[in-house]
Amino acid sequence: MTFMNATRPARRVAVASAACGAAASLVVGAFGLPAHADEVDGAGDFKITADGYYGSIRLDFSGGVPMVGEIPDVKGDVTVGVVQNDVDSTGLDAHGEGVYSRSFGSLVGADLLGVDLPLDLYAVEQVALPEEAEPDTYGIHDLTIPLAGNLRAISGEAKANWNADVLGHGSDGGVLTSLYSGVGQLDLVDLGELGLLDGVLGSMVPLDLPVGNGPLISTGDGQLLQETGVFGKADGSQGAYVEVSGRFADLNLLGGAANGGATIGLAAASDTEEPNAWGRLEATGEPGGATFEYELPALELWVGDEETGVAIEPGFDQTIEITPGVKANINFADYRTDDTELAEDGTYAAASGGGLSVRLTVAVPAPIVGEVELGSAEVGILSFPEVSVEVPQGGLYADGDEDDDNDLEFTH
């Protein structure tokens, strides 16, 4: 499978190429030089880190509600499509001696009502060294997430590389780690199944939700990709990069706009395969060589049966009332300026980005006090909390020595 080479939409483009000077230099210096750095004298120390997830949801419905009565106490969180990619030329010690690259993906992890579903229950992982010839694949259909909902399907593959074809003076470079995850229809939070529409809540202060006993939140098919690697430069040295991308799927609240709720989706999009959000960090080790480019799509919001959507550009943050008693705060996060660091000497680049986040609050009328909030459900789609690249000054193999005895180790 070829990763990250999809045609990227030009609807929304932003390029960050300014340096962040002293602050970034402090971050670079913090890494230091491990005692066994002589293993990579030919290349110099370099490090690439990327993590993220396709979707997450957090529930917080407290058991005791003043003036309303007892309702089920439902608290917890679910994460779907966790991805982690790490490369370190000095070794990833936590994963065993001689391991330099790692690609990890998890289908789902959950912690609800004290029931912990660990991230490694449905997961794929590949490390190098040793390097495997083929990617590791994973997949499952019709997965029931305890107390949270149902996931139609999730699948993907992970690959970790560490070899002389990719790394070396004069090499064109290539991929060190890559992970793809495809996520199918995801239905989350059925208030009826959770008991939130039963008992006191259902009989005395009923909520007239358009979704009825269906899922409070659902998403369509989506995908998430990450890739790390190195690339050749004109002088024979190498720079390093990390790319992240994904595809925002339609997000339906309370059954979606067609059923009286709300829908958030791509503006006039018919393509369900290509990524529509993308970012790339590069570090060459030369002045001005730390760069960050990214593209985010324009989304639209429909409420009820309205035919005209409201544009949601990165930076959008508004609260709307979907139906009496239910409000939604919608935030479409841009990459955070304060978390984007580009070293002036080109040795370090880092970024952190949010994605689409929606927080639903559910409230009911109560005697005397008026409206009382029962709880909230929050969902986030496509988030990359940490993405960074670090290379030595001049780049990898800046000394031009192809035959150094202390060059990168590719075999045990």
UniProtKB/TrEMBL annotation:
Biased region (Acidic residues) positions are 399-412
The protein's matches in InterPro entries, at most eight in alphabetical order, are given as:
TAT_signal
Q: Which parts of the sequence are annotated with region: Disordered?
A: 393-412
Q: Any idea which UniProt keywords this protein has?
A: Signal
Q: Which domain of life is it from?
A: Bacteria
- Signal sequence residues: 1-37
Q: Tell me the protein's name.
A: Uncharacterized protein
Name the species this protein comes from: Phytoactinopolyspora mesophila
Phylogenetic lineage: Bacteria, Bacillati, Actinomycetota, Actinomycetes, Jiangellales
